[in-house]
Amino acid sequence: PTFLKVKANALANPFFVGVAVKSNQLTEGSSYNTVLKNEFSSITAEYEMKMDPISTGSGTYNWQASDKIVKYGNDNGINVHGHALVWHNAVPNWLSTFSGTDVEFALEVKKYITDVVTRYAGKVRSWDVVNEAVADNGDMRNTIFLQKMGANYIKDCYQWARDAANAAGDTDLLLFYNDYATSTNIPKQNKVFTIVDDLKASNLIDGVGFQMHNTYLSPTKMQIETDINRAVAKGLKVHVSELDIQVNQNNDITFLTEERNLAQKAKYKEIVKIYNALPAVNKYALTVWGFKDNESWIPYSTDLNHPGNDWPLLYNNKFELKSAHTGFLEGLD
Ligand code: G3I
Which ligand 1 atom is the nearest neighbour of the CA of 180? Predict the structure, then answer.
């Protein structure tokens, strides 16, 4: 078979083909490890480089899983994208119940960002410094960070990350802002790029992550290109950071019909083609959010938008290639 990263690396303007991983998939000899080494040139920790698994208390850490993932990437010449330093869905209990002052809270966040970026300086190529800071209505999401640190918290977090990287000599670290559904939600898209402009004015951002948890029907090619081109126009790197393509978002099929299978293939091809057409200076990585359909976050998601089962990824439950994988390859033509 043709492997994704082999075809991507052979392009005139190559880019990383990434996948979300769990540290327990990285064991030498596992089928994940084989597929990972053959197909992918970048990894993102699906969970284990977030604050809640790493931060065990003020200045105390559990580095076991994050170190394993970073070491695996560094040992195997695979790019490591850091996800995510600050996210409202990944606040450890000790910090979400913090009884100190707001200033002390901010110092804890600064310490965390500084310690993590310093530890992985030169080993992690890029970080989602802040993830999903914008609410679906286009306002700032009312997170614990906004409440306790104030409206300037985003800039503070990027400044701390940049300062830590530079102090550690990692002047090439790429700082990303990462969010979802900006292609179809214009108020949200506008707010994201207001934040991005503000960060860029202080040279505190290098790229934008478009998660792209899509369906086989939405967003349209035009919506995706319009959204992504706003980052291109600002000279920023574009990371399609969490791509998966649902085919059963309305729970109207009980198995992957051939019709949906081929529609999914076409959507993967469309998105890869859009990414592949980007100017070289704006290319970074296109990351799919997992290996196998039955391990996707989607079928087991409790929220109402993702009822029942779905088949959103490139490999089926038996770790066999799907038409989606062929679509991805065709997008690299
Ligand atoms: O592994 C621990 C286990 O030791 C512990 O006992 C258990 C108790 O809660 O948690 C287990 O961790 C789970 C983790 O996935 C590893 O499987 C967490 O509960 C669970 O919340 C976590 O879900 C992840 C979720 O983010 C929240 O971090 C999903 O795998 C991951 O796909 C999802 O990814 C997010 C992106 O980071 C941001 N964009 C949206 C995307 C989908 O929600």
Answer: 39
HSE-up (13 A, CA, CB side) for residue 96: 11
Is the minimum distance from the CB of 50 to ligand 1 under 6 angstroms? yes
State which of 24, 47, 188 you would mutate to test the pocket of ligand 1, scoring each by most atoms of that ligand within 8 A of its C-beta: 47
Summarize pLDDT for 254-297 with one digit per residue, the tens: 899 999 999 999 999 999 999 999 999 999 999 999 999 999 99
Q: What's the token pair of residue 295?
A: 């391990």
For Cα atoms 188, 102, 96, give the angle at the middle one, nearest 5 degrees: 70
The 3-state DSSP class for residue 243 equals strand
48 lines ligand 1 (CB under 6 A): no
**In which residue are the tokens 């293939």 written?**
265
242 is catalytic: yes
Residues 314 and 296: their CA atoms lie apart, in Å, by 11
178 CA to middle of ligand 1, Å? Answer: 17
CA dihedral 302, 228, 224, 304 (to 10 degrees): 10
Q: Which atom of ligand 1 is nearest to the CA of 20?
A: 32
Catalytic residue among 108, 132, 242, 295: 242
Three-state DSSP state, 122: coil
The answer to pTM > 0.95 is: yes
Which amino acid type is present at position 266? A
Residue 112 alpha carbon to ligand 1 centre in Å: 20
pLDDT in tens, 242-264: 999 999 998 899 899 999 999 99
Helix (H, G, I), strand (E, B) or coil at 213: strand
Measured in degrees and rounded to the nearest 5, phi and psi for residue 239 equal -115, 115
Structure tokens belonging to residue 103: 């200033």
Q: Where are the alpha helices (DSSP H) in 76-174?
A: 93-96, 102-119, 144-149, 153-167
- What is the C-alpha separation between 86 and 98, in angstroms, rounded? 16
What phi, psi does 281 have (nearest 5°)? -65, -20
Residue 299 — very low, low, confident or very high, per pLDDT cuts 50/70/90?
confident
